[in-house]
Amino acid sequence: MPHRGLVCGLLAAVLSGPSCAPRAAAEAVADAAAGLYPSVLLFHKPHHINGPEQVRRAADLGFRKVHIVVTLHCELSADFQVQRFGTLAGQRFVPLTDDSLGRFLDSLRRTFATAADEQLEVAITAHLNAAGAIVEWRNHMRFDPLADYEGYSYQTALIDSIAAAAAAELPADAHVSFSLCGEMGRSVFEHPQSYAKVIDDLRARTTGPQWQLGVSLNFTEVAGEARPTERRQASMSALLAKSDFLGLSDYRPFDLPPDARGFALAVRELYAALDAWGVAGHRDLPLEITEVGLGGGAGGNQPALSPAEAAQQPWEGVASARRNPWITDEMRGFRRAFHAALLEFLTQPPADTPVRDAYMWSELSWDPLDLVDRGFADEEIAAAIRAHNDTVRGSE
């Protein structure tokens, strides 16, 4: 979600066992600590082309798992309907061709190959960003993942490319959480049967890692701007019944001082929103926080002037280290308190919020690790995350 603030002024097999299986899975993870891992960003911005370098940096920092966020771009109509898919050449949108899709796939393969070489576990989220004349947040985009848009579908261009690259480079016994979309609630709620078909197609593949499949929704506007009918609500419940997990992008505003209970509340509010839309099954699934972070921004690429201001819009950040919001003792202490509260929550998630892993948004002022951008690191936070993850892995 942070990119919205910067650009717009800136979630094994088909569930074939007993119906209690998802609930048992949720209960199994309810008492387990969840890890916190960095996100390797591929193609989100023009300079996000160095996937292998980001993976190696994560390994050098002591992480044993990475979350790879793979972004495809698109052009939109005035009503936010996808018109065509493409890639970025600098700041310029270039419609997708077989040649550019081949280069896209090659970059994915090199990134996954590096993760395999470094013996890292992998999680994946698929993203779609708008480019061109109309720029809008992906949660408002309208598209069917199976539909053809000038020669390519979301499934063939993005999902199948990810699956092919993972099959080529990751171990066959690797367990990989794969969120088919992040923050694309409108598309999911308008086309739940199509996303269910994508899950079926991935599970039908004869090669590749051991997939854990799901969709990831935003902490607010869960359905984007969709107004799902009762039929689509039922189809959404059926989609979750096929899923192995549910994802959450969590940038919920919070009160000071930061408190672990605020993260649990974000999950409960997601559940309540799904209840309100007549969706069932979400409480039966393990949860992954596919994005979480604190950008320290005030909007418009400006730094917040106080913790209170930053806490009300965690999705906002800054793109330049010259505007680093973390330079004062007060703001540094606030940032450390936020991450301490997050780690406290992940150490023992409440039984009704069964989080099994969480992934940082590893970019610019949201990132205390400086994974891809430099100038925002905080070694105290990085050390706390490493110590937390060592405890998590020690309990496995």
Observed structural traits:
396 residues; TIM Barrel; alpha/beta; 20% strand
Task: Count every beta strand, where a strand is a DSSP E run of 2 or more residues.
Answer: 13
What's the CATH architecture? Alpha-Beta Barrel
By CATH, the topology is TIM Barrel
User: What percent of the residues sit in helical stretches (DSSP H or I)?
Assistant: 25-40%
Quote the average pLDDT: 92
In DSSP terms (H or I, runs of 4 or more residues), the helix count works out at 12
Shape: globular
CATH-level-4 superfamily name: Glycosidases
Order of helices and strands: HHEEHEEEHEHEHHEHEHEEEHHEH
Radius of gyration in whole Å, from Cα?
19 Å
CATH class: Alpha Beta
Oligomer state of the chains in this structure: single chain
Distance between the termini: 31 Å
Parts with pLDDT < 50 across at least 5 consecutive residues: 3-31
How many structural domains in the coordinates?
A: 1
* Major sheet description: 11 strands, mixed
What structural class results from the helix and strand content? alpha/beta
Q: Give the DSSP E fraction (strand runs of 2 or more residues).
A: 15-25%
